[in-house]
Design brief:
Shape: globular
Order of helices and strands: HEHEHEHEHEHEEHEHEHHEEHHHH
Number of helices: 14
CATH topology of the largest domain: TIM Barrel
CATH superfamily of the largest domain: Aldolase class I
Strand content: 5-15%
Structural class: alpha/beta
Number of domains: 2
CATH architecture of the largest domain: Alpha-Beta Barrel
């Protein structure tokens, strides 16, 4: 399955395991890379020295390429970037910020840079900044999201039409069939998050993993757009947010309710009532917790079967 993305990253299959907060530690990233795809450590939930520890452990656990996802809205960004360089990480995915800020600095140090976008406008901005590829993420995706609410099947062909660099599709992808669909629409690869949350190697709490498996259609919603749009499971905390909206809440009131470490409380510590539980709409199609190697193998089998089905399709 060689193409522009497998060549760019030095991987076997055009699949990226998303770098998600409180989920994507070294065990998940190493297992993904050992399965022939690109594993990403999620730096957003890590203090700088914790990130260093995860990078070092990942290097010991895999001989294959892996990268780090860095949400640029988080503090200690300069220290995080210096650790990435010090530890010899060769692939960085940036998100939640201006790609102009760090792209040149990283590339001057021999690092491949990918930026996550939610619109054609920002895809073009990332290309102009000099990134090596973009991830175009539809609003089906879990976690922090774009305000445009453009769906993946709409976003991918629009971005593909406008850019010249490799394109990675994300948002609502958890099967080989979806992988094929987005690649037919112009993507060179896929980035998958929610499916890997429900993996044995993910650092997410077992309570959260089981909730993902039990999720049904309509159990998630994109909210908190005034702060940073986030798709989460509808639970007690979500209902409290909606009650504030009904009362005409100010941004400060929303910030007060959100407080600190809501996502950690939910996804890492397993508080299903008062925690922020970030997951994508595709959770309704995730029915079990499996090792990463099995998830990847299933994706590839489904992809090949879908290609065969399309070839045999007739009106």
């Amino acid at each position: 399955m060689s193409n522009k993305i497998t060549t760019l990253f030095g991987i076997k299959y055009p699949i990226i395991q998303a770098g998600m907060i409180w989920t994507s530690g070294w065990r998940l990233a190493a297992a993904a890379s050992n399965s022939g795809i690109l594993g990403l450590i999620g730096a957003g939930s890590m203090y700088p020295e914790v990130l260093r520890e995860h990078i070092q452990k990942c290097k010991r656990a895999t001989d294959h390429p892996f990268g780090v996802n860095v949400p640029m809205l988080y503090p200690n960004i300069e220290e995080i970037m210096n650790i990435i360089v010090d530890e010899g990480v060769k692939i960085v995915f940036t998100s939640a910020g201006n790609p102009d800020t760090w792209t040149s600095w990283l590339k001057e140090r021999g690092i491949t840079v990918v930026h996550v976008v939610s619109s054609v406008k920002f895809a073009l901005k990332a290309q102009e900044a000099g990134v090596d590829a973009v991830v175009a993420e539809g609003f089906e995706a879990g976690g922090h999201n774009g305000r445009e609410e453009t769906t993946t099947l709409t976003l991918i062909p629009m971005v593909h039409e406008q850019i010249k660099i490799p394109l990675i599709a994300a948002g609502g992808i958890a099967t080989g069939q979806a992988m094929l669909a987005t690649m037919i629409l112009g993507a060179d690869a896929v980035q998958i998050g929610s499916r890997f949350v429900a993996s044995e190697e993910a650092s997410s709490h077992i309570n959260f993993k089981n909730l993902v498996v039990d999720s049904k259609e309509g159990d998630t919603h994109l909210t908190l757009k005034e702060l940073a749009p986030v798709r989460m499971v509808k639970n007690k905390f979500y209902n409290e947010v909606q009650d504030l909206y009904k009362k005409g809440a100010t941004i400060e009131e929303l910030k007060t309710l959100l407080g600190r470490a809501r996502a950690k409380r939910g996804m890492f510590e397993g508080d299903l009532e008062d925690g922020e539980l970030e997951i994508g709409q595709i959770s309704g199609l995730i029915h079990d917790i499996k090792p990463v190697s099995k998830i990847v193998a299933d994706l590839l089998d489904e992809f090949e079967l879908a290609k065969s089905d399309v070839k045999d399709f007739s009106w």
